[in-house]
Amino acid sequence: MSHPTPEELNAKAHAALAQLEPRITQLKPKDRLAIPVQEMPAQDPHVRRHNIQEVAVGYTAEQARAEALRCLQCKNAPCIAGCPVRINIPAFIQAIVDGDYQKSVDIIKEASLLPAVCGRVCPQEEQCQKPCTVGKALKDCNQSVSIGRLERFVSDWEREQGKIKIPTVKLETGKKVAIIGCGPAGITVAADVRREGHAVTIFEAFHRPGGVMLYGIPEFRLPKVIVQQEVATLEKMGVKIQTNFAVGRTRKLLDLIKKDGYDAIFVGVGAGLPKFMNIPGENLVGVFSANEYLTRANLMRAYDFERADTPIFRSNKVAVLGGGNVAMDATRMAIRLGAQEVHLVYRRTEVEMPARIEEVAHAKEEGAIFHLLQNAKRIIGDDKGRVTGMECLRYELGEPDASGRRRPVEVKGSEFIMDVDTVIVAIGNDSNPLIRQTTPGLEHNKWGNIITDDAQKTSLDAVYAGGDIVLGAATVILAMGQGRTAAAAINKLLAEKMTQPAGR
Questions:
Q1: pTM for the full model?
Q2: From the CB of residue 372, how many other CB atoms can be counted at a distance below 10 Å?
Q3: Which of 88, 413, 456, 461 has the fewest CB atoms below 10 angstroms from its CB?
C-alpha cells in the first residue's frame, strides 16, 4: 500500500483552496461539506519503524486552512460540550481561516495550557469530534472536522515562531499550594492556581517532570521537547518543581499542611501500578508490564543504543497483551527496538478495541501482527526461567458486559502455542497505594481510586485530587478537565481564607 507524501497532500489542499478562493467569503454549508478531510502527513511506515521520530509531521498552512473551512461555525457548538476543558473550538478554527494563528492559540490557551500535547494524544474522535455537525451531516464521524489536528497546527506554529506567551500571574497572595505529581492534571492545576498569585510547588517522584507524558507516551507520538516546553512555561510563571520526592515516603501528605504550612494540596499521581493477568509463567524472564517497558524506553531512552546505558530486553518475537493505546505504544516501541515479529493479542475484536483508530492503523502499517479473539492462558519457559512461548485460547463474543462491550467467551479445546521470547502485559493500571496507605482518613473505593466530590475535594479538608488516581486509567484531557475543576475550587477556598478576619 502506497502512502501519499506530505508534498502530495499539500498539493491537494492547494488545489482545493484554489477552487474555493473566488467565493471563499460566501461559502454555504453544502460547499463546506464538500471539502474533503485533510489527511495528516506522516512518515512512510517502512522508514518510521526504524526511527523514534514523530510519525505524524503536521498540517501545512494550506492544509490547515482547507480543514478549518470545513467548520460550519454552528451556533450551538456541540464540539465545545464534547471537550472536557471546554475550549471555544469554533472561535479558534475561525481564527485559522482568517490567518490569525496567534489569536487562535490564545483562544485555546484560555482553557488549556497543553494544546501541543492534546492536539497529538487526545482521543478527539470520542470527544469533541464525535458530536461534530459535519460528521453527523455526512453520517460518518471520521468525516468530522479534524479539531485535534488544527489544535496541533497552531500550537506548533506558536512554538516554532518562538511566540509562546507566559500566562499573567496576579500579585502574590501569601498562600501556598502543594501539587503531588507533575502529569497533565498537576500541570493544569499548577497553572490555574499560580495565575491567581498563589505560591505553587510541584512534588514529583521521578527525576524528571512530565508524568505519563514523559514516561508513558513514546517519542514517536509525543516529542519530549514539547513536554519540556510546557514544564518550562510553568517554571517561568514561578512554579517550583521538586523532583525525586515521593509523597508518602519522602514526606507524608498531611505533613505538607501540618508541618510545612501549605494551605491546600492537589493529588494528581496518576495510576501507575500495572495490572497482570495472574496466569502461570508471569514471573519468567522476558515478561514485562507495559509500564516498565515504556518507562525504560521513553524516560530512560533505552532506544538510544549508542548513547544510553539503560538495560532493555533484546527480543526477537514479542507478544503484547491488550487492546488500548498503551498496548499500541508497547507494540510499536518493540518494533523500533528491533524485534523481528511483534504480535498483538486481544480477546475481543477490533471494533471493541479502546485504542484510537489512528494508533491501530499506524501499528498495522508498521508491521504489527494482530491476533483478535485470542488471549494468553499461560506463559511457557525453559529450564533457565526464560520465556520460550505462550499458550493461548480462542474466544468468541457473547452478551455485553458492564463496559457495554460484548463479553469474550472461551472456546473450549481451542488451545494453541505461540512461539515468543517476550511478553508485554498492557491490560491497564491500578492506583499506586503509597499515598492512601500513609494518609489516614483519605477515602478511596474498592479499586484504590481516591473518592472526590464534584469539586474534586477529597474526604480531607483542603485536599483535592484528580486525573487517573480518581478516574482510573483515563486520558490526558480528562485529567486536565478534573485539574481545572480542582484549581477553581482551590482558588475559591484560598480567596475565602484571605477574606476571613485574622485569628479565625
A1: 0.92
A2: 17
A3: 413
